[in-house]
Each structure stands twice: as structure tokens, then as C-alpha cells.
Design goal:
8 strands, eight-stranded mixed β-sheet
Length: 185
């Protein structure tokens, strides 16, 4: 779990499944232009019950942290999601950050707060060297979040990900752990 001043970022629990389905149902039109095409069972509670179990196992194994954002002022309502995935150890010591935020929660600074918390988690708890995050060039809100959080642009990847049925270019960004000593690994 990641706790920030205004947010709790945590793995979903079985009791959260109706809220997860509601979150994605309410925000589908808002999120779909920036997401891989949602699977037909994406709004199915049974699928999300299984996801709760899978994500807990992945987290326990140190493979990922696929979580949801809850504002402390409304702890029963999902404000967004945040994922640290593709965790690589060995010589790479990195992970990939992804996130989205409910349409109604935009402009409150929640995602900047959550990303800063996630980077601290990746660097301090997981002792990673690098966190990468990529965004479509037209997604200016996401670009602004990453800039505010200290991510540096590393390049442009043409036709990088299949987003909403179309191969989309992505700006590649990363942040490096300034305190990790190779002898700490």
C-alpha cells in the first residue's frame, strides 16, 4: 500500500469489485481513447474477482503492484488506478508505471501525488534503479504529470502500443533513483 497526503493507493479486495466495475463503466468513454481496447468481459464482476486474486499473487511475488487510488475523503470510491508492472531485477532493476484517473477527478493533483508516491515506493521499498512511463504525444495531461514528477523524455517510439484499435506513437520517459548505490543491491 502507498499512502500520500490525500490518497491511499492499494491492491483491490474482493469487496471492491462492484466499485471497480462501476469505475470502469462510468469512465469507459473517458479512458478508452488512451487504453488498449477493453476486453468484452472487462465490466464483468467474476473477471474482476479473479483479477483481485491474480494481482495479490503478483504483488506477493514482487512482480507487480496493480492498484487503485482512493481519496481519503471518499475511501469507498475509486478515483483512479496505478500500476507498477514489468518489474525486472538483475542488471536492469526497473519497472513500468501506468495510470489513469476518473474523469471527475481530473485537475485535483491526485495523479501527481500518486505518481510521486509510486516512484518513492519503487525506489525505497523495491530498491529499483529506474521507473519508466510512456504516453501518447497528444496526452498532454499525462505528459504534465510526468514532468512534474521529474521524469525525463528519452525518445519517441513510433507505433509503440495498440491503443483503442490503432498503433500509437509514445513518448518514452524515465526517472532514475538518485540514491541507489550498486552495493545496496
Amino acid at each position: 500500500m502507498i499512502e500520500t497526503e490525500r490518497l491511499t493507493v492499494r491492491l483491490a479486495q474482493a469487496a471492491d469489485v462492484p466499485e471497480i466495475v462501476s469505475y470502469y463503466g462510468d469512465n469507459r468513454d473517458h479512458l478508452q481513447p488512451f487504453s488498449p481496447t477493453f476486453a468484452p468481459d472487462f465490466l464483468n464482476g467474476t473477471m474482476w474477482q479473479e483479477q483481485v486474486r491474480i494481482r495479490a499473487r503478483e504483488h506477493a511475488a514482487g512482480e507487480s503492484f496493480r492498484a487503485f487510488l482512493f481519496a481519503r475523503s471518499t475511501p469507498e470510491k475509486i478515483a483512479g488506478n496505478l500500476n507498477l508492472t514489468q518489474v525486472h531485477r538483475g542488471a536492469l532493476q526497473s519497472c513500468v508505471l501506468g495510470y489513469n484517473l476518473a474523469r471527475d477527478e481530473q485537475g485535483k493533483g491526485y495523479m501527481t501525488e500518486a505518481v510521486n508516491g509510486a516512484v518513492a515506493f519503487a525506489f525505497e521499498r523495491w530498491r529499483l534503479h529506474r521507473v519508466t512511463a510512456n504516453h501518447m504525444p497528444r496526452n498532454e495531461r499525462s505528459a504534465a504529470v510526468l514532468r512534474r514528477c521529474g521524469f525525463q523524455v528519452e525518445g519517441l517510439a513510433p507505433a509503440y502500443l495498440l491503443i483503442n484499435g490503432k498503433w500509437e506513437d509514445h513518448v518514452l520517459t524515465a526517472i532514475i533513483n538518485p540514491t541507489l548505490n550498486v552495493f545496496d543491491l
